Amino acid sequence: MSTVKDRLPPLSQLGPFIALAVACTVFGLTTDNFFTAANFSLILQQVMVVGVIAIGQTLIVLTAGIDLSCGMLMALGSIVMTKVAQDFGLPTPLAILLGIGATTLFGLLNGLLVTRIKLPPFIVTLGTMNVAFAITQLYSSAQTVTEVPEGMTWLGNTFELAGNPVAYGVVLMVALYLATWFWLRDTASGRHVYAVGNNPEATRLIGIPTDRVLLGVYVLAGLFYGIASLLSVARTGVGDPNGGQTENLDAITAVVLGGTSLFGGRGVVLGTLAGAIVVGVLRNGLTLMGVSSVYQVLITGILVIVAVTVDQLSRKGGR
Amino acid sequence: MAAPQIVMQARGLVKRYGQVTALDGADFELRAGEILAVIGDNGAGKSSLIKALSGATIPDEGEILLDGRPVHFRNPMEARREGIECCYQDLAVAPAMTIAENLFLGRELRREGVLGNLLRMLDKKKMLEIAVERMADLKVGIRSMTQAVETLSGGQRQCVAVARAAAFARHVVILDEPTAALGVKEGNMVLELIRRVRDKGLPVILISHNMPHVFEIADRIHVARLGRRAAVLNPKKISMSDTVAVMTGAMKPEDIPADCLA
Questions:
Q1: Is A318 close to B124, i.e. CB distance below 8 A?
Q2: Measured between beta carbons, which residues in chain B are less than 8 angstroms from residue A2?
Q3: Is B106 close to A201, i.e. CB distance below 8 A?
Q4: C-beta atoms surrounding A214 within 10 Å
């Protein structure tokens, strides 16, 4: 028999929704244009790239890892897909596949280094972050790719929903969140991701191939970064070799704000969506208030630390 | 008296880790319906023996027989498929997951029909029902199977770990230090549970450092020493101090009175 208390999520999972409510209230009261449908539509479009990166990041954090390469891989993917389309005139679907393939391969590389050589994810992804950044710069000659085929930006287009513009990319993002949520919550392989993050040794002894679970998570994360590459190209209309730098930290911020524990094994991917929206709302609201971007960085930084502190304290208290 | 039925047997197991020889020709025998305690000093080869029997490591030499039939486990999953369930010290459960999820970890049930086959959706309701039923069967008095394991006391947590093994074993239950780090009352709670498992007809291999616990519930005691089996003792005949003497090498196996052997 389950009681009401069992069903209530812990504070760390409610955190992002509380933060979201607080931020919305403050911005709603202090700015004129915050509570407009057009503005929310804009926020969601701004969030979609970070949002999809953060799905991959959530998976890795659930296994008690961290991926510092996520933003750089996204930039690499967007350069690869736009560049091969521009230089070789490859058909758009093929170019997109190559871009997503590049990030997925990097995910595989991260995963192999973590599972086969047992390197700490922090160090592995710190390395691949720099490798990916360098490859991106070299391959693009540090030039923005501006000739982007129309098919690549389609996801940035909007359609009307109850009179409000909604980007197709936002729909894709929400669909990916729901699919990942279902997978993690309702399938055996999804539960094994939690088990690996919770107690890797017990999970291995139970007979679950923990290395395969981990490897799968890193590959899947690479795939999500690739999809984020496409969304980034769709949103900006270019392949940007210097992209992904704010997204790198913002994605981690979204995951942590979303209540996923950096110690692994706890968290809900929908919380990450809320976390990503909090980050987007903050950036948007502060911009509307006319706060300079340096302060936005400052506030995001403080927010991460607060979120991690809540995680740490609730973990101690919960034991 | 008829010869006791032997469920699991190992002969001449050898396991080396680099320079270290953890098992040096170890023998092993588990009889039907008994609690067999496995004791030994640190480094005597207890853990390696248990890991070999449960598929967690592959022995370099020797053979393992299950119901007289040779088996070669390459991983814990294969041992589980043969009905051997193992509960490892401190490592048995995923704390943030619910009791029901822990019981079914690695043997999840899928829904029937499209939801299960195509979407691979879990049948949480059925797993919960079975969890409630199996735990009631073992008389583990835990109210809710949907609470996270970390909300339980140490003793309850250990009961979940033991029940995890016992609820699904068809052949052998292996318990590694199930009463370590528990208070007296909680330790007794786990011992009671182990007795119930045996009384259900499942033979139990119990690895323990706790001599009073071993003497309280074991039917026979396997003493591991220097990577081999030094002796199998009868706890009803031999004293605790002599047992420790055999374990540490102070008493030679050939000096043990014949009626103390089992």
A1: no
A2: 144, 146-147
A3: no
A4: 26
Q: What is the DSSP letter of A69?
A: T
Residue A199 contacts B, CB cutoff 8 Å:
yes
CA nearest to A4, candidates B147, B61, B184: B147
Asked whether residue A279 is domain-assigned, the answer is: yes
* Portion of chain B with pLDDT greater than 70, in percent: 98
Count of structural domains, chain A: 1
A13 found inside a domain: no
Lowest mean pLDDT among A160-164, A234-238, A262-266, B190-194: A160-164
Whether A26 is in a domain gets the answer no
- Give domain status of residue A14, yes or no: no
Of B55, B56, B94, the CB nearest to A198: B94
CA-wise closest residue to A61 among A238, A184, A232: A184
Residue B77 contacts A where some CB pair is shorter than 8 Å: yes
Which of A13, A62, A206, A316 to probe by mutation at the B interface, max B CB count within 10 Å?
Answer: A206
Are B105 and A3 within 8 A, CB to CB? no
Q: Provide the ipTM.
A: 0.79
Stretch A44-73: mean pLDDT: 96
pLDDT digits (tens, 9 = 90+) for B171-190: 999 998 888 878 888 888 88
Chain A CB contacts of B121 below 8 Å: 182, 186-187
Q: What is the span of the domain harbouring residue A200? A: 38-310
Q: Are B94 and B149 in contact (CB under 8 A)?
A: yes
Q: Select the residue of A187, A195, A265 nearest B105 (Cβ to Cβ).
A: A195
Structure tokens at B259: 């009626």
pLDDT in tens, A182-229: 999 999 999 999 999 999 988 888 888 999 999 999 999 999 999 999
Q: What is the CATH number of the domain that holds A207?
A: 1.10.3470
Side chain identity at B176, as an amino acid letter? D
Contact between residue A278 and residue A20 where contact means Cβ atoms under 8 Å apart: yes
Exposed/middle/buried for B160, CB within 10 Å: 0-12, 13-18, 19+? buried
